[in-house]
Design brief:
about 220 residues; mainly alpha; Helix Hairpins; minor pseudopilin epsh fold; 2 domains
Length: about 220
């Protein structure tokens, strides 16, 4: 199979105190890993087994008979991006190219953060919140359940899991507190900048016009 098992890009305790070790262990082992194992069992020995994860998601999303497989595959992909959207000692205002795009699209980082929090609060039930690159600009997009921007043609820049298992151990039902902690203490703007830079290299997107030298993970664990 062309899909590697999920792995955390940092140790389980590295996001404390903003996100507890218990939350990450429970989230990774009881949710993402379970989705991966079920996805693997469903494709093993079949023609879909040779597909990379992104293509498996696109193929199964178009086939109602494979919707359950799509959900498991999408959840694996979504979580891979979510882990990399955070880093130890992250958070704070966006910098580099993504900061420039945020100011262009939303007027200021403060306005962006307000819209991001409002969108997270408005999402009914389980789902995801995304910062995506669409039509030469950044957009905040919410998806329900296992929904992923991959099948919409958007490029995901950041992901925030809005399922209750992502925050219930640390914040109970206070989703707003979890979103605030993500923005102020966890979000990995360096990862967002690397994604924009890769997008600019591989296309003629206007992201190339505002590329700046981004900060490195000085003093931090690298996020692969």
């Amino acid at each position: 199979m062309n899909i590697e098992p999920p792995a955390m890009p940092y140790d389980f305790a590295d996001l404390e105190p903003a996100m507890s070790r218990d939350t990450l262990v429970f989230h990774f082992l009881r949710h993402q890993r379970v989705c991966f194992d079920r996805m693997l069992a469903m494709v093993r020995g079949g023609e879909l087994e040779a597909l990379p994860l992104d293509e498996l998601i696109r193929v199964t999303e178009r086939n109602p008979a494979q919707h359950l497989l799509y959900r498991y595959a999408a959840e694996v992909w979504n979580h891979n991006l979510f882990w990399r959207s955070m880093r130890p000692r992250g958070g704070g205002a966006a910098h580099g190219a993504v900061g420039e795009h945020i100011r262009t699209r939303f007027g200021s980082y403060e306005h962006f953060a307000r819209e991001f929090k409002e969108a997270a609060g408005a999402q009914f039930g389980s789902g995801w919140l995304w910062l995506v690159w669409r039509d030469d600009a950044l957009e905040i997009v919410a998806t329900s359940n296992a929904g992923t921007p991959l099948v919409r043609g958007d490029t995901a820049i950041l992901a925030l899991d809005l399922w209750e298992h992502a925050y219930y151990l640390d914040h109970q039902n206070r989703r707003a507190a979890y979103v605030t902690a993500f923005l102020e203490e966890l979000v990995n703007w360096d990862f967002a900048n690397r994604t924009l830079a890769n997008l600019a290299v591989n296309s003629d997107a206007p992201a190339a016009r505002v590329r700046t030298v981004t900060e490195t993970d000085r003093g931090h664990l690298s996020v692969r």
